[in-house]
Write a structure and sequence with these properties.
Strand content of chain A: 15-25%
Order of helices and strands of chain B: EHEHEHEHEH
Number of domains of chain B: 1
Distance between the termini of chain B: 13 Å
CATH superfamily of chain B: Response regulator
Helix content of chain A: 40-55%
Number of helices of chain B: 5
Structural class of chain B: alpha/beta
Strand order of the largest sheet of chain B: 2-1-3-4-5
Number of strands of chain A: 24
Radius of gyration of chain A: 34 Å
Helix content of chain B: 40-55%
Oligomer: heterodimer
Mean pLDDT of chain B: 88
Number of helices of chain A: 26
CATH architecture of chain B: 3-Layer(aba) Sandwich
Chain lengths: ~725, ~120
């Protein structure tokens, strides 16, 4: 039977990523002088699990790194090694290397193997230099064996004779030989020559042969693992040349053995390395000789019942006498507390529920047009349907929700590394890690938030000397706070640093020829930071900027996530950057407005107020359109019928309604015919179903079956400014 | 009637691989995520073979095997340890706990099936 191992890769990738994240968190939280044994155990287990999985699924580079890491961690948790700060640094770096390797396997890229080799060396050095009198191979203590195994050097004879597909095999061999080289001292006796097979030259074309001897501290299983993806059964022979040919040692090396009498039997397939063992007699036909088992790598501790039909019946007997009558129910009730489901399945479900919401709205709308007597009868049922639909929608949406701790959890590391680099002292506080938001948003939030945190550390928090001089505690604080506010998720990055220097921003903006004035509000000045090419590094400190600029941060948040970003700052006291995001990307609370018989949706979050203006409040600025005068403020008036080129039903603002919206820190007054009502709408992408339209972010289907376009406030505001 | 195998491993990927392999070969498979869960599943439903990882949160494999062996219905049911460790410590601990045998990780599906067939046919 062949099993396609690649079907398990995705689960392994997710699992390994979780372990790496857990490992990093635990490492960061370790008290170097008095580490919590439970945490050390958990770190060890993470490394151990990654090693097991990566070896099983053929990701050898990861298995190699985790192998060394695991051995070290094992000795630390057993008290054989004293934990030091330097070790945590190297462990964290090893985690980065593994992350890089994992991503390479996942996305088909190239891992930085140079880095991996370097970290392996560093880890090995920790193992040897710190070996304070506890011999690795002592085996006396509680230490499990890998470390012990790893240090007995053996010579292996390896013969690899692939049957077919040699061009590809040949290409793989270079990597493989390199990997073998990492295990120990490798001598190549035959490098892929054509093997004589007794047939004609042509027939021999496909036959290749490699022969090596390898002196290594690694076990046969590891050599096998390297060949795992290349060699098929029967193509690979590995034999160990053990010093003294001691049976016990051999057993240990091949990872199998017996504790009880094993009936002698002629070895029928002695070359095969089986990788398992039994501790006890295995009656014929299943019984194996010691030597064979030695090759197998498995073992039995006690007598095994032969898998004969009679015994099967016996083995099955307890099944029937088992006290549980409702086996199925008992099992079902104890099913796992969580399951992994592909995102596509969830998205499909969300889509279906979205359709259901629309259908429900259609029903409600149709019913409202019926004879009131019939509506009366239908009313209860329709109300119930609406209620259930909403509940269903909420539950389904909640499947995609993840706590923001998934993003926040990476920042202790970022802060730690950056503090070391900048020579600053910063405490990171996180508040509201349990706040949930859509998985899609979580993924998109990570990059911009990282940039903001880095900015806070780089440009916000001052050096300890400056802080002391300013009468502040030498350790700065950066707070990440997440909370729900209305229909939004609000994420704040707050620092108690130097704050943003308004004058320097204005100065810089003037230098760049931007249209600014000294009387601009603070908000407007801070918004300048988001202009393309306006590096905060130029403005706030002289440390050179890195990576993306604030313009990209803003673009990600506004265009990519439908969110908003604001800056508050007090010079000398710190800054606060606030990101407001919709709860989800799939559903939106909107106000539907009518323009010449068409429906448009304005996202509620942007609406400041709606008003019916007096005739004299609307003024025309020659050549620049109209403005609305409201409470001493002049706001540009944007008529939707002009933007979308439709013939107006109402062309005088005082006959229609003005909806004041605010986006990008600017207000505009949208002139519409009428307000139709507030709805929760399911967003359908216009881009993927039609094409991108300026001023429109998507579409939705209304209760009456009509399509309504969802207005893109940011682009409308900039359209109006450029008009 | 299909033989039932309980696979106990905290790694979802390994568990899936074991379950898929054994199901493809006609076994019924019950999965458990750690020793404590394994114990509970084994109590809830009698199984013909238990494959257990060694290093797991909550309850490790050795402890689970000891607990299982203390149950009358699991006195003789074969239990194999799936372990990355191959040293004497593992073996003496495994034997003392009452394990039937061991299989070293990493193993491939064929190897797993080979061993399982040896034990329960």
């Amino acid at each position: 039977m062949t099993v396609d191992m690649s079907q398990f890769y995705q689960v392994f990738f997710e699992e390994a990523a979780e372990h790496l994240a857990a490992m990093e968190n635990l490492l960061l939280g370790l008290d170097i002088d008095a580490p919590d044994p439970e945490n050390l155990n958990a770190i060890f287990r993470s490394a151990h699990s990654i090693k097991g999985g990566s070896a099983t699924f053929g990701f050898q580079n990861m298995a190699q790194v985790t192998h060394i890491l695991e051995s070290l961690l094992d000795r630390i948790r057993n008290g054989e090694l004293q934990l030091r700060a330097e070790m945590v640094d190297i462990f964290l770096k090893a985690g980065d290397v593994l992350q890089n390797q994992l991503e390479a396997h996942q996305n088909g890229g190239e891992a930085d193997e140079e880095n991996a080799r370097a970290i392996c060396e560093q880890l090995s050095r920790l193992a040897t230099s710190e070996n304070s009198g506890a011999p690795l191979a002592s085996g006396a203590g509680e230490a499990p064996a890998p470390a012990a195994d790893a240090h007995a050097v053996r010579t292996y004879h390896i013969r690899f004779e692939p049957d077919d597909g040699f061009p590809q095999r040949r290409a793989n061999m270079d990597n493989l030989i390199e990997e073998l080289g990492h295990l120990g001292r490798l001598s190549i006796l035959e490098d892929g020559r054509h093997a004589p097979d007794g047939f004609s030259e042509e027939a021999a074309e496909g036959k290749l042969l490699w022969r090596f001897t390898l002196e290594t501290a690694s076990g046969e299983a590891e050599i096998n693992a390297i060949f795992d993806f290349v060699a098929k059964a029967g193509e690979l022979e590995i034999s160990a040349e053990a010093p003294g040919s001691n049976k016990a040692e051999e057993e240990e090396e091949t990872a199998y053995g017996f504790f009880t009498d094993i009936p002698e039997q002629a070895p029928d397939q002695p070359e095969e390395d089986q990788g398992y063992g039994f501790f006890t007699d295995l009656p014929s036909p299943a019984e194996k000789t010691a030597s064979e088992e030695a090759e197998q790598g498995y073992g039995f501790f006690e007598e095994i019942q032969p898998p004969a039909p009679t015994v099967t019946a016996k083995a099955a007997a307890p099944l029937r006498t088992a006290p549980q009558s409702g086996e199925k129910n008992a099992l079902a009730s104890q099913s796992e507390s969580s399951i992994r489901v592909s995102v596509e399945k969830v998205d499909h479900l969300i889509n279906l529920v979205g359709e259901l919401v629309i259908t429900q709205a259609m029903l409600a709308q149709t019913a409202s047009k019926l004879d009131p007597e019939i509506v009366e009868i239908l009313g209860n049922a329709l109300g119930q349907l609406e209620h259930n639909t909403r509940d269903l929608q909420e539950s389904v949406m909640s499947i995609r929700m993840m706590p923001i701790s998934f993003v926040f959890s990476r920042y202790p590391r970022v802060v730690r590394d950056l503090c070391a680099k900048l020579g600053k002292q910063v405490e990171l506080k996180t508040v509201g890690e349990g706040t949930e938001l859509d998985k899609g948003l979580i993924e998109k939030l990570s990059d911009p938030l990282t940039h903001l945190v880095r900015n806070s550390l780089d440009h916000g928090i001052e050096t300890p000397e400056k802080r002391i001089a300013a009468g502040k505690p030498e350790k700065g604080t950066v707070t990440l706070r997440a909370s729900h506010q209305g229909g939004n998720i609000v994420i704040e990055v707050i620092d108690d640093g130097a704050g943003i220097n308004r004058d320097r921003i204005l100065e810089k903006a003037k230098e760049r020829g931007m249209a600014v004035s000294d009387s601009m509000s603070d908000q407007d000045v801070y918004q300048l930071i988001f202009a393309p090419g306006f590096s905060t590094a130029d403005v706030v400190t002289d440390v050179s900027g890195r990576g993306v600029g604030m313009d990209v941060v803003k673009k990600n948040i506004v265009n990519g996530m439908g969110g908003r970003i604001e800056i508050d700052s007090t010079l000398g006291q710190g800054s606060r950057i606030t990101i407001r995001l919709p709860l989800t990307l799939a559903i939106l609370d909107g106000m539907s407005v009518g323009v010449s018989g068409e429906n448009y949706i304005i996202p509620l979050t942007y609406i400041v107020e709606s008003l019916k203006p007096k005739e004299e409040d609307v003024k025309t600025v020659s050549g620049q359109g109209r403005v609305l005068h409201v409470r001493g403020e002049y706001i540009p008036l944007v008529a939707l019928y002009e933007i979308f080129n439709i013939s107006p039903k109402v062309s005088k603002p005082h006959e229609g309604i003005l909806v004041l919206v605010e986006a990008e820190g600017k207000k505009i007054a949208l002139f519409v015919d009428e307000l139709l009502g507030q709805h929760q709408v399911v967003i359908k992408s216009l881009e993927s179903n039609f094409r991108k339209v300026p001023g429109i972010s998507g579409a939705t289907i209304m209760g009456d079956g009509k399509v309504a376009l969802i207005l893109d406030m940011s682009s409308l505001v900039s359209l109006s400014r450029n008009a | 009637m299909a033989k039932i195998v309980l696979t106990v491993d905290d790694s979802a990927s390994i568990r899936q691989m074991v379950a898929f392999t054994l199901k493809s070969a006609g076994y019924e498979v019950v999965e458990a995520v750690d020793g404590a869960d394994g114990l509970q599943k084994a109590k809830a439903k009698a199984v013909n073979l238990i494959l257990s990882d060694q290093n797991m949160p909550k309850m490790d494999g050795i402890t689970m095997i000891k607990e299982l062996r203390a149950l009358p219905q699991y006195k003789t049911v074969p239990i194999l340890m799936l372990t990355t460790e191959s040293g004497e410590t593992m073996k003496s601990q495994g034997k003392a706990a009452g394990a039937t045998g061991w299989l070293v990780k990493p193993f491939d599906p064929q190897k797993l099936l080979e061993v399982v067939k040896k034990v329960i046919g």
